[in-house]
Amino acid sequence: AVAAAMRLGAVLGALRPALPLLLGLSLGCSLSLLRASWSHGAAEERCLAPGPPAPPARGVPPEAAEGRPGPGHEDFRPRIVPYYRDPNKPYKKVLRTRYIQTELGFHERLFVAVLTSKATLNTLAVAVNKTVAHHFPRLLYFTGLRSAKVPHGMVLVAHGDERPIWLMYETMNYIHQHFGSDYDWFYIMQDDTYAQAEQVKALVTHLSINQDVYLGRAEEFIGGDEQARYCHGGFGYLLSRSLLLKLHPHLDSCRNEILSVRPDEWLGRCIIDFLGITCVSQLQGQHYHTYELAKNTEPEKEEEEDFQAALAVHPVSDMTLMYRLHKQFSRIQLDRVYQEIQDLQMQIRNLTALTPAGEAGVTWPVGINAPFLPKSRFEVISWDYFTEQHLFSCPDGSPKCELSGASKADVSEIIESAVEQLNRLYQPLLRFSKRQLLNGYRRFDPTRGMEYTLDLLLEAATQKGHSHVLAKRVSLVRPLSKVEIIPMPYVTEATRVQLVLPLTVQDLDFVANFLDMFAMNTLDTHDNALLTLLFIYHPYDAQRVGQVDVFAGVKAMVGELEKRYAEVKIPWISVKTEVPSQVKLMDIVSKKHPVDTLFFLASVWTEINMEFLNRCRMNTISNWQVFFPVHFQEFNPALVYRGEQTASSNTDFLRDGHFDRHSFAEACFYNSDYMTARTKLAADILDRDEVLESMEVFDVFLHYSGLHLFRAVEPGLVQKYTLRSCNPRLSEELYHRCVLSNLEGLASRSHLAMALFEQEQANST
């Protein structure tokens, strides 16, 4: 009994700290059960209580008051739509739009129309195009009659009649027909109007697209209704999409019934008579500010608030005045931006002082992201050393190269900016002038921009004329600016790709694998791709082709493929040459295909797959861009694995290899773009065909096309390791690149070091 009592006391002693917790849990559970039973009983009594139901709140439908969705709310009730496909009907692939905004019916923001004439097309219209056209997303010029030559970079629509009312009528019809379903806002202006493009774009972002908007400088009709107003065409006016859609059915009636001399009055009367909407200068809290220029106005001397706040200025009499206005408004906008930056920096300083980090938390420059902090030594961003003449981190890997081009302009600009900032800080006490750049360092930080550290040898002059030479270190940052989406032409994945495969005698061992991959990834999947083989015969082999054809085995494999796939034809072209110049071979292929052919120039080691072919289609744009992928080259397995079994798991994808930046064998481009660049090359080299032996297709597009050259790593192009034969008959640069590609494709530095270590160990034993 004593032992049992002692054991019970020990258990109670151990449970004593947990007793409050257990009591609290028990009490809480009990209260919760009691509260649930009370609530349940009260709800039942309320639901079963007799008497008439309480009336719903004012403006609330009875269904909503009872908790049921009303007749107009069926679309908001969730429901499951079961998928069903009729087994008797053949399966058909659903074609969807590539961009989600097309499928959802999103519209572009702003369309701009400029009314011009044959007399002012080459003067005022050109000035408009050079000043504000690049700020608007879409801008077209409308005229009655066009001149023989349209200025470069302008999209012109000619209606064939110079009558002002007819021009306005045809312009509104054209805008509705071609752009009425694509844009939310339509801005109409004349070529003698200067519009602040950024202010106009900001205006439409603050207006609701659900209203019928007729916004501009409101003017009274001569002898008409005092309440009605039309928008003056000289200062531009803004129309909403909803108003344009409602106005279009009445344009023919307006043309026949309304008489007017001015096209803006005619349009205003048409909108008022048939839609009952008058022009306003203020809407939804937004003001349409305008400024009327007087004769002999000096834009540089205009300091009025109305001028600085104006969205549109009229009339602009000549091109020079247009450029002067653009310069003045650009300066005003720049001053506003600088002032906003200073205000934001002051607010950041004030707020940062209240944070736990205090003033130490303020980054430099204020408002720019802090420098990137590496988590390991592999993430350290290295600095590039430079002087005013040389760069000591060269793209080609050489230790020293001459500073030229954009790099030289960058260094000159940053030095001038450094001296200017020093003078701004120390004037009028000191005046600095640069003597020499002692040391320069720069690096690109992806989180903030380009950073510079300069050691400058300066001459400092005082107000009394004394001077002194001193060295000073300054740090500068060129921050990343606003990221913009570059507009690109629309492309589709349905384009047919024409593969071109040049073959030499040295490539025969790899043709079978190429054809197998081509059949598996394109023919079996019915991809829209064709193949053309280019047999390159050495002159000695060409003479013996009647007795021994070195490509007979390849032709037999092609025949087997054509038998297996009856609808497929794989043509081949035979060429005899000692030096297989890529440009000369492409000249032969180009002449045998239409101009709209999309070529993919492949190599025999390339493993074709659908993923890459789609990227080839998307990254190649006719008359805009060509694509040169950088394939992934696997290392030599004898050096990487050294007799061990090769890893085959998915985690090792793109692991034991590198992207071969020395190879330009693969390329995607349109035949029309190649023919255009090739024509310019032929005019440059005349009859010196030997120059072609030192060039590749990449060089042709780089120097003679003017197109965008998109060169990027391509994980979809993986090539097995092979030691490629480098033709010494090619140019020195091409031969050097081939040798470098072979050397860098052997193995990584760690693998090579391990191989050397094992070899030294074996030799020492």
TrEMBL record:
Membrane topology according to the record: Single-pass type II membrane protein
Give the protein family: Belongs to the chondroitin N-acetylgalactosaminyltransferase family.
Give the highest taxon in the source lineage.
Eukaryota
What residue spans carry the Pro residues bias annotation?
50-59
What is this protein called in UniProt? Hexosyltransferase
EC category: transferase
EC numbers for this chain: 2.4.1.-
Q: Which organism is it from?
A: Urocynchramus pylzowi
